[in-house]
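Quick one: mitochondrial processing peptidase from Podospora fimiseda, structure tokens please.
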Amino acid sequence: MASRRLALNLTQGLRGRAGGLPISLRRGLATPTSAGIKTETTTLKNGLTVATQYSPYAQTSTVGMWIDAGSRAETAETNGTAHFLEHLAFKGTSRRTQQQLELEIENMGAHLNAYTSRENTVYFAKALNEDVPKCVDILQDILQNSKLEPSAIERERDVILRESDEVEKQLEEVVFDHLHATAFQQQPLGRTILGPRENIRDITRTELTNYIKNNYTADRMVLVGAGGVPHQELVEMADKYFSGLPSKSPNSEAYLLSKKKADFIGSDVRIRDDTIPTANIAIAVEGVSWSDPDYFTALVTQAIVGNYDKALGNAPHQGSKLSGIVHKGDLATSYMSFSTSYSDTGLWGIYMVTDKLTQIDDLVHFALREWSRLSGNVTEAEVERAKAQLKASILLSLDGTTAVAEDIGRQIVTTGRRMSPGEIERIIDNITEKDVMEFANKKLWDQDIAISAVGSIEGLFDYTRVRADMSRNF
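--- reply ---
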């Protein structure tokens, strides 16, 4: 979500001699190349976009529907509906019972899954190439013909309530939910994905069907294919199965609110619980959107701050200046820098966990002092290190058809086009230390912050004191 764990492992090699021939005269085995692989897009008459990356050597494919609607498209009263629908999608349609649906997927050896985020809902399947038409048929069935039976709704209500209990035990999830809630107060982006427990208990079939009617429309959906499915074949399947989708979303109150620019509010939320042995603290400034010109500069700057985990064997040598200070002073168990983007805004910051409860102020001070340093003293070496890690992270994250489909769907839903890995690499290569310092001056220096803290946080100083560290002259 927030941070990219960065690693690089690029290898180049030459085959040795074969049959005594010099390397220059020997013909090697034919090897597939990705040089000609590109993302193709087609828009149907009703506005549905079909996007594919065809790999002729792939034996499997991932196909899925990326929908420009998540918890941000809900009202306070219906918060949790998108996630509830995701659960119900596999519980039977007008054509298939739940058992038939599960057997059909099982007999193909395919994988069918879904997830909900603040801005997207995704349904996808991974299967052998010859089973792609069946998978697209199943996807269209669960998207357009889900029965939403009252008995299934009641069963899933209990399942989601238990899921909510489990999420509340995951401190990182809790901290980030509260960070959104305080940074984007009283706004759709500040709500949780699962929704409050009272909403989960009260969501009705009418609210679920209204959410589908208002959001599952062709202009907000992208059918994605990655792997061994040719573009034109997927376009023909889309035309067959999805041509009946409504072409445009109604301008409901929830839709209009979801498209309104979110306002970042400097504030804090603290949940002190001394039975928790650690302090779990997230601090963030307003970040950048997916389409912001500074998007990749924000990621490079995040990589300079880096990550730290005391439990790792390389803890003393994790690269960033801050990790060295934290390790030497034994200030934290771990920290993770992050740059989370949305369609119109974002959160850029750091999440820290420490059991050194009397040194919380030192930990926060050194983290924010590092942010201040970025405004005026960044070396070429640390920018190059961050760029290399970022490029490797992006390339490694595209390993497999599901990861490629995810990248295509997310980019087209949020920005309207997919940047190729080569294009991204060129943009990152052109980022300089001057760009990083300009970004830091604009986004970090003396900017309001949002703070979310949970656990044994008595040692965390008040908001005004922490905010004052955002413009520290050394």
